[in-house]
Predict the 3D structure of the following.
Amino acid sequence: MRGKIQQHMYTRERKGVFHDTAGYDTIAMSEGLEPSFVKKYVHPFCYYHAPKALREHGERDPSLYPPAVTIVHPETGDLVMGQAVFIAADFTGTRSTYFMHTYVIPPFRKEEWVRHPEMLFHLEAFQTAYDLSNGPILPELEVVPFHDTNILEHETLKTLGVSHAHFQQLLFAVMTSISGKKKVFISLNVPLQEYTNYALLLLELLYLYLPYGYRRNLGAITFTSEPETRTYIHVTFFEPGTLNLGDRSIEKQFVFDFSHGFISGVSAAVEQNEYLDIAIQHVTELKRMDDFFKFAEMALAGLPEEEKHSLANYNQLAGLYLIWKNRDFNLYLKDKRRFLNTLVKCLQLKKEEKSELVELFLRILDNEKMADDWSMARFYIESIVSVNNLVGFDEVCLFLLETLRFHHKDPLYLELWKIIECDRLAFESLVCYISNQPDYAYLLKDYFTLRINHLKLEDITFHKEIITNDFAAKITEDILRDEFLILKVIYKLINFPTESVSHLLKLLTKNGREQLNRILQRILCEVSSPIPIQLFFVAFETSGDGVDYPKLFDFLIDHYNENTMCSFIKENAHLVETDVLYRKSLRIYFITHPKSIWKDKKWRKELQDVNDGKFKLLLKEVEKDTVNPLVRFLKKTGINPF
């Protein structure tokens, strides 16, 4: 379809565009309209159901028959708007018919119509007849003339006998219909020949108080002889007196029969609804809501379409809007969690376009000062971390610090830090800030102490992103050095087992070294995957740079199987030559320990296959010292015991 506004005309004639025989068909249309589009999205809405009251009397005067205006938004993104009028006689002169003129506004032009309801509801250019001698091609249009009328100057609701409470219910029903499957049926207590004029007035008034997301989908017809459900049509104005209350399909819909004072289908959910309350206030004051709608469009940008059709979202956005516009935090204080949830959800997508929400978020933090409520503290910190890359960290740092300080002695303290850890930028910024503030250094000291102590191997994955040389250089407080270095050593040992960590170990204090050993030993108890050998040595290294091998062997025996023990000994066979203490400890283990793998023929064979001279000599010594006394005597006398 082309970029201009397209036209389409439909009636019963001798022949049409799609059929050469007499009957109902397109009789003329713009060249930019695709035949497939016309058949799928225009033809189904080319109909006119004349009023029963007039048909039963055989009325032939067209001026007494109300036109029917149809508005449809198909999934193509176009806006289809047509008007059907009663025609007393067709081309035969014997039968009545109807004539329909439709405009199709392309998607990129549609937004202008959505935001300016007068363009939809005050058109001047609907045709009621067409001379076939002019040919089947209608011009494409740049604009369609309309009356620039301010409907809020008219007392529409009062004229129609619709109270503000009923109008609020109507708004609720229309919004619910667009976001769901229920339909809205309305009957007005007005003269038939004026029916569509009043229907358009009420429809326009409803449209004025519908957010843009709903407007882009609202389908409606201003007159039909009786209620019926149709695809793409949400609001149907029907002829008074034709409602069949026994029809089960109608029973399930929203019905507003103002001609008989009957309303059904509207639940109590309409009461205490923030958005509807604001809307009715604007109706009462004869004000438009475009400022709020623009705020809502900004806030919901990037979210799925169903989120833009959620009345619950507009309730929450109404509160955010009032807080942002009036700096009134009373609504926020009533339900902090709900408002913050909405704010954070909206800031997750297209955040660079939502400066108003960023401003509002910072206002809330400034108003709160800190999260002293234990039940809300986690939620606040999660909210801050989730939008941290959007707001300036300096602006939220004080809130985080005061919250951490308040909960310093609570079990919650470490949990709050773990939430901050989830965002590298937030964590690094906060740690660097604290390390340069002596008054807050204890917060970081205690965090590192707590964190280093239940620390799991999987946590190292996180810390590898943070523990960089640049970051280390930013830690200025000496009291933090041990804890930071411990994390760095563990990270190096796990991720780069072949690299030396001796230069880092030398920087640790005695207490720091002992703490590192305890942590490594605990981690080694939990690991099931292949373990870097160096980890064992560091875990049992003494302050004098030696290794407590007896404890190391006991640890391997207590926490691992024979396979791990054998692998450890084989990989470190070379130490027999270079480390006297290791050689001595290994020999004692082989000879004296009740669980020595030397006693098992299978493992003994594996050890004897190791190709290392000094190691082989050690095994011969062990073999000599552990052999059965009788076997030793026989060997000494030259007799083969086997």
The two ends are 98 Å apart (CA to CA). DSSP finds 33 helices and eleven strands in the chain. The mean pLDDT is 86.
